[in-house]
Write a structure and sequence with these properties.
Largest sheet: none
Shape: elongated
Oligomer: single chain
Length: 92
């Protein structure tokens, strides 16, 4: 037996479900590989669903490029500490 449903019918069905039933359905619609990817995104703070921005995708204005030209951080720089110090300085 084949059944055909319109998207409106499916949407109406889903919006009529309780929050618990929608959560259960969402949990079962995500396959294990996607769950692992979501966990990794949360780990690195990229839970927005947007793809990561690669360095080669960034466009830097000439003014900014001239400002940082020749500036390099040492290899043993503690980036997390630097970010924390910057945020503390900026936001107190």
């Amino acid at each position: 037996m084949n059944a055909t449903f319109s998207l409106d019918t499916i949407l109406n069905l889903l919006s009529g479900l309780s929050l618990d039933n929608r959560a259960w359905l969402a949990e079962h619609l995500i396959n294990p590989a996607e769950k692992k990817e979501l966990a990794l995104r949360k780990e690195v703070g990229s839970d927005s669903g947007w793809p990561k921005i690669r360095r080669e995708d960034m466009r830097i204005s000439d003014d900014v490029a001239n400002l940082v030209k020749g500036f390099e951080l040492p290899e043993d720089a503690d980036y997390d500490k630097m970010k924390l110090e910057y945020l503390m300085e900026k936001h107190g």
